[in-house]
Design goal:
Layout lengths: L6 H8 L56 E7 L2 E3 L13 E3 L8 E3 L2 E5 L4 E6 L5 E6 L9 E3 L2 E5 L4 E6 L5 E6 L9 E3 L2 E5 L4 E6 L5 E6 L9 E3 L2 E6 L3 E6 L5 E6 L9 E3 L2 E5 L4 E6 L5 E6 L9 E3 L2 E5 L4 E6 L5 E6 L9 E3 L2 E5 L4 E6 L4 E6 L9 E3 L2 E5 L4 E6 L4
Antiparallel strand pairs: 1-34, 2-3, 4-5, 5-6, 6-7, 8-9, 9-10, 10-11, 12-13, 13-14, 14-15, 16-17, 17-18, 18-19, 20-21, 21-22, 22-23, 24-25, 25-26, 26-27, 28-29, 29-30, 30-31, 32-33, 33-34
């Protein structure tokens, strides 16, 4: 079952002593105040995606270009599990967990792709062929997007553990128990993990052993993936707050009331934060003054983490509308109606936008809101796709991970 990962992947890994921001990330300088990145230098390969949205600021949205004419290159079948009696979460014990859940973005480095599944397994595949390299089993579903860092994979699961496994063979290195699910995706900087838990805590762990450096209790569970810049970290909570914490000690510096469950992961562009809430709002907040720059109301709830590219913000809402706004003013530029709610977060690269729909379709639009194509799957899509080197990787609740592309790279 287990196979060695190819030499090309290992070469990439040697170039990854720290997790760093992609060079084409969008950052803004305002009024003479320059925001420094959370890390110092940049060595991450362009065609890699080693954490949810690519970097601590959540500003990497893809590389290459989505194909104008799409076809299925391969698909990989996962399994399923039942909720089970022991969980006692108020869910039907016979409920079937299958496929890739929200937010569920694959992690990719070199020729290697890693993703978590609702069947309780973390899978490692060859990204070119879909061939299974190894798999690691948890005691319950995985919703967290995995993070690859220094030859290891870090992810949370509904078994109430943060797991660390070897990228080479999937063997357990360590796991750390928390008080509830962990759907938040780990943000790793300088051998330190920042992640939220559904036990109402935001955590800081060491990478080498999973030792708790600090943990901070907040109001409500945290499914939002932590965003980091300078000495600050930002995350939303289910009780309707966006929090700003100190990276050094976890002290709460301020909190902003959103008014409803805030699962969206914040996007940092210079001094601005972009994030949404299930109350149907998309916010632009000055993180230095905590003042609202603008807010935009949708009919459906906002679970989709936005993409901010070339002064535009792209995101979907639960009523099936995909929105394009001015990042400066929040004014609508265009809207596109899909045939299902949108939880998936969009990929944007080279004027092409890719996202999934709860109708089971993967959509591709131009940056002006014109439909290029749709690709049907057999189940609801809540997961976030990865657009890497002109190929699209996206999971569905039909139990498959799909790889889409054209005839040539």
């Amino acid at each position: 079952m287990q196979r060695a990962i190819k030499t090309r992947t290992l070469i990439y890994l040697l170039l990854l002593p720290v997790l760093l921001l992609p060079g084409h990330s969008c950052r803004r300088k305002e009024k003479g105040i320059e925001s420094k990145p959370a890390v110092d230098s940049l060595i991450i390969p362009r065609d890699s995606l080693t954490m949810f949205r690519g970097n601590p600021a959540h500003t990497f949205y893809g590389s290459g270009k989505a194909p104008r004419k799409v076809r299925l290159l391969w698909k990989f079948k996962t399994g399923y599990i039942l909720e089970g009696e022991k969980e006692k979460r108020g869910v039907d014990p016979k409920m079937v967990w299958m496929g890739v859940a929200w937010s569920g973005q694959p992690a990719i480095i070199g020729d290697t792709l890693v993703f978590g599944s609702c069947d309780g397994k973390l899978y490692c595949l060859n990204k070119n062929t879909g061939e299974l390299l190894w798999k690691y089993k948890c005691d319950h579903s995985i919703k967290s997007s995995p993070t690859i860092y220094k030859n290891k994979v870090y992810f949370g699961a509904r078994d109430n553990y943060l797991h660390c496994v070897s990228l080479k063979d999937g063997k357990l290195v360590w796991k750390r128990k928390i008080g509830n699910d962990m759907d938040s995706s780990p943000c790793i900087i300088n051998d330190t993990i920042y992640v939220g838990g559904e036990d109402h805590y935001i955590y800081c762990f060491t990478c080498d052993s999973g030792k708790v450096v600090w943990k901070t209790e907040v109001e409500g569970s945290v499914e939002s993936s932590v965003a980091v810049i300078d000495t600050f970290l930002y995350a939303g909570s289910a009780k309707g707050y966006l929090y700003c914490l100190s990276r050094r000690n976890g002290n709460i510096l301020w909190k902003f009331k959103t008014g409803s469950d805030t699962d969206v992961s914040p996007v940092i562009i210079g001094d601005l934060l972009y994030f949404g809430s299930e109350g149907g709002w998309m916010f632009c907040l000055n993180r230095l003054t905590q003042k609202v720059v603008w807010k935009y109301k949708t009919i459906g709830r906002v679970i989709s983490t936005p993409a901010v590219v070339e002064n535009r913000i792209y995101f979907g809402s639960g009523d099936g509308i995909f929105h394009c706004l001015s990042a400066d003013s929040g004014k609508i530029i265009w809207k596109f109606k899909t045939d299902g709610g949108i939880w998936s977060s969009p990929c944007v690269s080279d004027s092409m936008i890719v996202f999934g729909s709860r109708s089971g379709k993967i959509y591709c639009l131009t940056s002006e809101g014109n439909l290029v194509w749709t690709f049907p799957t057999g189940g609801v899509i809540n997961a976030t796709p990865a657009l890497i080197n002109n190929r699209i990787y996206c999971g569905s609740h039909d139990g498959y991970l799909y790889c889409l592309g054209s005839d040539t790279l």
